[in-house]
C-alpha cells in the first residue's frame, strides 16, 4: 500500500480529478466523488473487494445518520416557500425592528429563511420583497441584495438542517445538535457583518429597484398567508427540541438532578435531529393554505424530490471519506504537521480552495469533510468540541469565495440587475470578508469552549 508523500500525491490527484470532472467536464458531483473513491482506493493498493465494501459502507452509513434529517428539512423548506411563510417572516421582522434598519432586516430574514431553504431558492423567493423594500426605503437594490444574499449564505453553510453542515457533521462524526447550536452562535454576528458590508460598500453601487409589484401585491399572489406564529414554528420548534436534547445528553455529573429519569429519556428522543425535524415537517403542514391531501402529497413529493440529489451527493461524499479513512494518512500528517496547531485553519483553507475551484459550497463542504475526517486526531480535533468546530471551519471556507463558477453568484446578479464587474466588487469581496471573519470568530469560540468544557 502507498504511504508517505506518494499517498499525499495520490490524494492531490484525487482532488484534482474531482475539480476537473465537475468544473471542466460537467460530470455530476455524485459520479465524480464515487469514481474518485474507487480510483483512490485501488491506486493506493487496497484490495479491490475491500474498496467495493468501503464505498458501499460509507455511502449507506452517512445516509443512515442524516438521511431523514435532510428529507424532513427539505419538506419544511418547501412548505415555507410555497405557502408564503418566508414573506411573513420578513414582514414580521421588519415590523419588530423597524424600517430604519431595513438592511439588517433583510440580512436577518435571509439567515432565518436559509436554515431549511437553499440560499439560491431563498433569494429568488424574497427578491420581489427585496425590490419593494428598496423602493420604499430609498436604498439601492445592491445594498439590500447583498444584505439578503449574505444573510442567506451564512446560515446555509453553518446551521443544519441545511444539507452542507449536516453532511459534514455526519462525515466527521460531530453531534448535529451541537453543530446547530454552535452554528447559530457563529452565524449571529456574521449576519451583521454582511449587513455592515452592504451599507458601507455595496451601497456605493446604485441600482434602481424598479419593483414590478408592491408588497401588498406580492402577498396577494399567495392568497391567504399563514400567521407569524405558524410561519416561525416549523423552524423554532425543532431548534428548541434539539437544544433541549443536547442539554439532556450531558452526563449527570454536569447535570445534577436537572433533567433525569423519564423526562431525560423523552427529551433525548424528541431532541434527536431526525425526530425533531419530522415534528417540524408536520408542524409545517399547518401553514398549507388549504389542508388537502393533494396539496400535502404534492408538497411532500416535491420536498423528497429536492432531497434526492442532495442525498446522492452526500452519500458519495461519505463513500469517498470511508475510503480515505482506510488509508495510512494520519501517521504521516501527524509526523509532518503535528504540533503546529493549524487544525481549524487547515480545514478552512482546504474548503476555501475547493469552493473557489468548484463553485458549489455544498460540494466543497462534502469533499473537504471527507479529506479532513481521517486526520482529526493528527490535527488535534478528535474531541466532541473539536469535531463540531471542524464542521464550522469547513463551512467558513465554503463561503470563500463566490464568483463566476458559482450559480448563486449569477442568481444574485440576475435578480439585483448587477453588472458582473459590480458583483465582483460588491458580492465576491463580501464573501471573502464573511469567510475570514467567520474563521476568526470560530477560533475565538473554539478557545472559549475549550476553557469551559
From TrEMBL:
Transmembrane segments: 6-23, 30-46, 58-80, 101-126, 138-159, 171-198, 229-250, 266-288, 308-329, 336-354, 360-381, 424-445
Keyword Transmembrane: yes
One Pfam family recorded for the sequence: GntP_permease
GO cellular component terms given for this protein: plasma membrane
Swiss-Prot/TrEMBL keywords: Membrane, Transmembrane, Transmembrane helix
Molecular-function GO term, any one: gluconate transmembrane transporter activity
Source taxon at top rank: Archaea
Descriptive protein name: Predicted D-glycerate permease
Organism of provenance: Natrinema salifodinae
Taxonomic lineage from the root: Archaea, Methanobacteriati, Methanobacteriota, Stenosarchaea group, Halobacteria
